[in-house]
Amino acid sequence: MLLGILFIGCNESGSNSDRDFQENPKKQYWLDEYGNIDSTEISIDDFSPSTDCKECHESHYEEWSRSMHAYAMKDPIFFSGWNSEQDKRPDTGERFCIQCHNPVSFVSGYVPGEYLDGDVSKDLLQNSSLPETIKEGIGCNFCHSFTALSKTISTDDNVAAVAEYHLNPGEGILYGPIKSPAENEYHESEYNPIFRQSEICLPCHNFTIRGVKAEITFSEWHDVTAGGMVNALSCQSCHMPNLDGHHNHEFVGVDIDLTQDIPADSLQYKSVEKLLQGSVKLKFGGSIAEDAIKIENGVLSIPVTVKSLTGHSLPSGTSFAREAWLETIVTDVDGNIIYSSGTIEGPTSNLILSDTNLVLYTAYLLTSDGDTTTSVTDAFDIIPKMLPGLSSQVHKYEISENFNAIDQLSISVRMRFRAFKPFLLEGEHSDLLARQPVFEMARIDTTYIIP
Cα separation of 141 and 234, whole Å? Predict the structure, then answer.
């Protein structure tokens, strides 16, 4: 995450020492103990659909259209979780999920489910009674109504929605990072430096529950970069890089639309692949000269250094659903496999977790009983097994084998990644599993001549 930040010394709540932008105009809303709107000054009609932006901002619109922001209310996995959460927690479940996936609904008190019959995930996009601003998930107008920074979402045991947005929608003013915006006949434009700060990604990209740091991408970034002071890193620089004079509105991350086959020329796929390939670096050897590939007493030692190039952990976000791992293969001159770790039969295959040499980066959520769970709202603890941002780790493979009849070895190591562990998609979402790609983040190869 990389671009000049205009603030000095921020904290995780999203405060800004450059200027207190809480003084900027905003419309209020008030929540009850269950995260429902008690009252609000914000109407659903205060927001216009993103299609209204297309005429003047075609590139921005096209980029947004293939973003996961635009996918927020199209994702079958989200709908499964949303329906499940409402079953488990009828008082809080609907608003808890909607506070980030459909913030227009949240701040206006609009409840999409009241206008739908049957399966919400199937009916939502086809339902003509729903406003386009609801169907589109996280649209242009919502984000560009921000007038001040938010803080982390921290919810208690009842899992109630608590998101605090500072917005001024419906007044004909859109806010952004351009200091001297051009005048136009459609809306007023006002500069606000918060759009250049990583805190603009709050509240949705930092979430704790019962004090458990469940999804804390912002906190990871904040701790690693000392609040953005290290190399002037920011979320925008990686996830909204500059393109021909404007910042890319794909908001590229690691997720991809799996509801349809991925075409060979998919711009979304290429953007995710590029991001991942710039996130990590591999090399043979360790931190000292003695950490080199060698054979001693019949044991082949292969040290591999994994270096993070990101400002947050890898994987981040829903790290408990994701996995990045090393696939290591050693073959002889005839191509016979001498050793392997981290190999899978195909993209839909689960990793062999019994492999004690497996280098796997992920996380595990725990219930109150200490059992693993895949539901973030049932989490009472988390075991983080991610690669910390901007860090290096050395992993050493030690392979016992009779190498007397072998002259040389070919060694291949690559970092692979997928956004969902296959077992999470098996069954209900098997169609998505069949389409999920396994990305290659980095690869190194060498030939070792046996002395």
Answer: 22
Closest CA to 197 of 428, 423, 16, 411: 16
CB count in 10 Å sphere of residue 9:
12
By C-alpha distance, which of 356, 348, 370, 360 is closest to 423?
A: 348
- Coil, helix or strand at residue 414: strand
Q: Are the C-beta atoms of 194 and 228 separated by less than 8 Å? A: no
The DSSP secondary-structure symbol of 9 reads S
Write the DSSP assignment of 110-138 as a string of letters.
--GGGG--S-HHHHTTT-TTS-HHHHTSS
Locate 180 and state its tokens. Answer: 């001297």
Closest by CA to 71, choosing from 152, 22, 122, 137, is 137
**What is the pLDDT at residue 7?**
31
How would you classify the pairing of strands 439-449 and 337-341?
A: unpaired
Q: How far apart are CA 193 and CA 200, in angstroms?
A: 10
User: Which of 249, 198, 204, 241 is CA-nearest to residue 53?
Assistant: 249
Whether residue 314 contacts residue 324, with contact meaning beta carbons closer than 8 Å, is answered with yes
224 phi and psi, to 5 degrees? -70, -40
Query: Beta-carbon neighbour count of residue 425 at 10 Å?
Result: 23
| Statement: the pTM of the whole predicted model exceeds 0.85 | yes
- CA distances (Å), origin 324, targets 198, 362, 418: 25, 7, 7
CA 45 to CA 12: how far, in whole Å?
Answer: 32
Q: Give me the residues of the chain with pLDDT under 70, please.
A: 1-23, 113-128, 230-232
CB 161 within 8 A of CB 102: no
What is the distance between the alpha carbons of residues 13 and 199, in angstroms, rounded to a whole number? 8
pLDDT at 233: 81
**Cα(149)–Cα(20) distance, integer angstroms:** 9
